[in-house]
Write a structure and sequence with these properties.
homodimer; about 575 residues; OB fold (Dihydrolipoamide Acetyltransferase, E2P); BirA Bifunctional Protein, domain 2; Gyrase A, domain 2; eight-stranded mixed sheet; five-stranded mixed β-barrel; 17 helices; about 30% helix; AspRS_core (chains A, B); EC 6.1.1.12 (chains A, B); nucleic acid binding (chains A, B)
């Protein structure tokens, strides 16, 4: 037997018990005639002690153990003289009477500790050692719990998990599909799914009523923005539902996850329209951990000969609580920040509402203090606050102010990773105009239903048509989204017409789903959550890579196994393909 | 709102309640001035009633509803005059006051009923309609429950589910790998995993201690034998364990599944060595729902001038209880059966132990009744039994007798799908000789550990070396298998030597796993279950296709979505590949 206990469970209650433990040598130190070893496994660390006076040979063997050696020991649980109350096993140690080396270890390339000396590249190459660090392993444990509790909640709500195929069909627009040559069908290819969208809708046609799947999806695209070529979704679909049913069901999932994983009671998730999100936060995924809403100033700033404001489509600002004392340098930093090319503002106007009641702005030459008082009123600013204003084209200015707002949130410590502020964003536009093709595109996908009251606008003002589409946002990150689908044939045809598809094109691209819809499709809708992202937010991490056991790098490479790689010519021949590099 | 209740929940307790239901029109019949409709959803069937006298227009609309129309109705729960006590909702019906057609349906290509008129091909083409049949959907519900209970059990036993990558690396021996060209790394390919074997072993090196995953695996091979190019495994690995720990843990999983899914208490799973399985059942996966063990007769049949037996390496038989009255024709059928080319016996000797105490055999000319009495004694046969004997080369004869035994099991009704007889088969040979390459091959894989007491035999009698390898067998089907792995470098080198690998070859093929083993690998072992097969056995089905929502056919094609398919030239160009068909 390799162990009677794990390294995480022995406490003062076990004094005197003879135990066998197995694990890794985490640390070792000699102190006078004694040698102390931290023995580590997944469950914790237990201190071992060897004593020269008791057993010289054994102690000598103990001294020779290297870091990360795998050993098995037998010994008695005794009370420690110097206790470590930070860990559950910290009051005891094991007086070793028997030692067996199960496996030796070469010197590891970096420290197996929470604070390691290994750089990113090295840790990825030796990911199996990186995963040995408690801080990394805990992320995987969290991920496991998240998946398990998601399944519990959904199963308890009558959802069935159905595995949809991984080897599917490439669609004409599947530019980002990974494809897989078929040996049995030479010249033909499968594709890996970017999502199980079609299959989950088919399952609704099948009457499955409530479907979910925690499922790998694949996208062959640029990976700059913390993306992975393979990623995991919580994919869900329900029949005979309206938007409200979906929002309630998945708000419930969310509350369950917060409660069961983090012990946090989440209040009702607030809801915001897409239009309001853009107007008040300049983003379709507002971080509402803090307020600092946009205030539009067109009505009160125009016509005072300040050309920048007079020419602007939108003048809009935020109020930074308590920042009036910002130094010139600090304000300049903010100006530099908004002028960065990726943010693109041309300048920043500020207005201090000083503690002494005076109001000073960077545009004092155009605005009298009584006019500035109107600004202060518009923001509901208090003494000590700093107002920051941008002006220009509406979309661009909102986007820039969103960045500035987030930056101020960071500076003011409002974006704490232990604070969680979920939000539903509703009523997304159904269509967006694609400048390149000069056509309207479905913002989600062509089966997303428009709001009934907006259908008439399809003819007159397509951009104003709102969809029954919703996103779940957490701390400024989109973590899920979905829609109520069109199940009605006439409406679907109308949609295809407005998307510029002929019946033939529509059928070529969505053929079997459209066929299926002819045989009695129920009203249905669904949602999909980015599981990697959700886990990283729960874990308070910045990148999804940290919640993926074996992630790929920005070039889509797994540097540990050195993949992708060339394959043998015989293999290519058998598949009836050739590379043309 | 689309419904207040599902079609499976209203009973006599709900009399008088006004309800709204949605679902599919399963059946419709007019009876005098009344129209009755079976409304179906996933949860059941509720009868609707329309009455000409009450509301002529509504009833007329009801009469026009076609099969599989999706409708929403409102009405009152009333007591049925003619009750159907076979279903929970059979005592009530809904007197419809409001009807809305949510979606019409074309005529479906086959009946959506348990007994359908649709052939296999048609049902696969319209799989989404096939899945609408309760009998098919129930298989998916079972599969969901099996996965969920598996996860519950393993999570409760400290296993962590870790997602391993789907885009991995093709190995030099990955002849059956599916490969995936990488757009970002032109000329290079990922491979889809045939199993996560390497990754789960790496996770043990990482100290994960107990890993599992319900995971899709992929194999590009001939699909004749009820296989699928993508299939699902319950993949597990544990550290600091011996074989006994693994057997106990997964016997526990098995018991939990039987109890929670089928309400069956499974007794301790019996164990059998591979050697005994071959000797007594002629198979490494004996069906032990019935006894009928092989009895070897060499000692008592030889030397009586019956050349067939005298020349045979092995004379071996089974005793079919109560079959002595078999007619000549029935015995001839059995003879024809064993002579089929795929079974390959040259003939069948029988011996009847008649009810009147006489013994008659097909070889009476060589054996006196007192000699035949010895046969009877060897089998422990009783009056009325029929003994069936084959002779020839040991392996071939055992294999043929295994087939005959299973055939007799079928004829005697011993192979009931509702009876479950699991079995551990232990002590598999470590190596098997490959005639083609003239080399010994690892029967499982090269990391499988030999029994310590057999290691010396590696030099002298490699075929006799037993492995710490085990299979779980259920009703004559292998449903899982695994082994204790080698974690010791010297032993691993010895193994590679005996498998004819140079150090370089071994490193090329298993490089990063061997590297990983140098940094402190714990003793570990694991098992993997074929989840599709397991589900099909639980469901009492003959093929794994029936427990897969969207299976592929024998040519690896999904006929519903028509995949695989050709892809656009531009797509091939971007991937820097060409087809050579």
């Amino acid at each position: 037997m390799h162990r009677t206990h794990t390294c995480g469970e022995l406490t003062i209650k076990d004094l005197g018990v003879e135990v066998t433990l197995s694990g890794w040598v985490a640390k070792s130190r000699d102190l006078g005639g004694m040698t102390f070893i931290d023995l580590r496994d997944r469950y914790g660390i237990t201190q071992l002690v060897f004593n020269m006076d008791d057993n010289e040979q054994l102690c000598a063997e103990g001294r020779k153990l290297g870091r990360e050696f795998v050993i098995k020991i037998t010994g008695k649980v005794i009370e420690r003289s110097s206790k470590n109350l930070k860990i559950p096993t910290g009051e005891i140690e094991i007086k070793v009477s028997k030692l067996e080396i199960l496996n030796a270890a070469k010197t590891v390339p970096f420290l197996i500790e929470d604070e390691t000396d290994g750089g990113d590249d090295l840790r990825m190459k030796y990911r199996y050692l990186d995963l040995r660090r408690a801080i990394v392993r805990k992320n995987m444990e969290l991920r496991h719990k998240m998946a398990h509790e998601t399944r519990n909640y959904l199963s308890n709500h009558k959802f069935i998990e159905v595995e949809t195929p991984v080897l599917i069909k490439s669609t004409p627009e599947g530019a980002r599909d990974f494809v897989v040559p078929s040996r049995m069908n030479p010249g033909e290819f499968y594709a890996l799914p970017q999502s199980p969208q079609t299959f989950k809708q088919l399952l609704m046609v099948s009457g499955f009523d409530r479907y979910f799947q925690i499922v790998k999806c694949f996208r062959d695209e640029d990976l700059r923005a913390d993306r992975q070529p393979e990623f995991t979704q919580i994919d869900c679909e329900m029949s005979f539902v309206e938007q409200e049913d979906i929002l309630n069901m998945f708000e419930g999932l969310f509350k369950h996850l917060f409660k069961s994983i983090k012990g946090i009671d989440i209040a009702e998730v607030p809801r915001m329209t897409y239009a309001d999100a853009m107007k008040y936060y300049g983003s379709d995924k507002p971080d509402i951990r803090f307020d600092m809403k946009f205030v539009e100033l067109n009505d009160i700033v125009k016509g005072k000969d300040f050309k920048v404001f007079d020419d602007a489509e939108l003048v809009v600002g935020i109020c930074a609580k308590g920042c009036a004392p910002y130094t010139r340098k600090q304000v300049d930093e903010l100006t530099d920040f908004v002028k960065k090319p990726q943010i693109g503002a041309t300048g920043l106007v500020y207005c201090r509402y000083n503690e002494d009641g005076t109001i000073k702005s960077s545009v004092d030459k155009f605005y009298l203090e009584e006019e500035l008082q109107k600004w202060v009123n518009a923001f509901g600013a208090e003494k000590g606050d700093l107002i920051l204003i941008l002006a220009g084209k509406t979309d661009k200015t909102r986007k820039a102010l969103n960045e500035l707002r987030l930056e101020m949130g960071n500076r003011l410590g409002f974006r704490n990773k232990d604070t969680f502020a979920p939000l539903w964003v509703l009523d997304f536009p159904l269509l967006e105009f694609d400048e390149e093709s000069g056509r309207w595109h479905a913002m989600h996908h062509p089966f997303t239903s428009p709001k009934p009251e907006d259908i008439a606008l399809l003819e007159t003002d397509p951009g104003a048509v709102r969809a029954n589409a919703y996103d779940m946002v957490l701390n400024g990150t989109e973590i899920g989204g979905g829609s109520i689908r069109i199940h009605n044939k006439e409406l679907q045809s109308l949609m295809f017409k407005h998307l510029g598809f002929s019946t033939e094109e529509a059928h070529k691209q969505f053929g079997f789903l459209m066929d299926a819809f002819e045989f009695g499709a129920p009203p249905h809708g669904g949602i999909a959550f980015g599981f990697d992202r959700l886990c990283s937010l729960f874990a308070g991490l910045d990148t999804i890579r940290d919640v993926i056991a074996f992630p790929k790098n920005n070039s889509g490479r797994d540097v540990m196994i050195d993949s992708p790689s060339t394959i043998a010519l015989e293999q290519l021949d058998e598949l009836k393909i050739k590379t043309t590099v």
